[in-house]
Specification:
This protein is mainly alpha-helical. The chain has one domain. The protein is about 60% helix and about 10% strand. It has 2 helices and 2 strands; from the N terminus they run ααββ. The protein has a two-stranded antiparallel sheet. α1 packs antiparallel against α2. It is elongated.
Length: about 70
Amino acid sequence: MMWDILPDMVLKSVVTLCVTLTLLQLLKCRSAAQRAWVAHIGMGATLLLRVGGSMTVRVVKDGPARMVVTGPER
């Protein structure tokens, strides 16, 4: 069910959080309000990955001649 997309979601979340933390390090000299915006946008992007990952249509390639399109799993 969801176990097949778990590694993909974990990888995307780690990349998103690494980018957010890198931006926060680069913006260390900026005001706290600007850093808070970056942190909130990064957290929102990470949370939206979960929602978007479960609602999008996945294309499963099943051999060289056939392609199967599946809907969201529940």
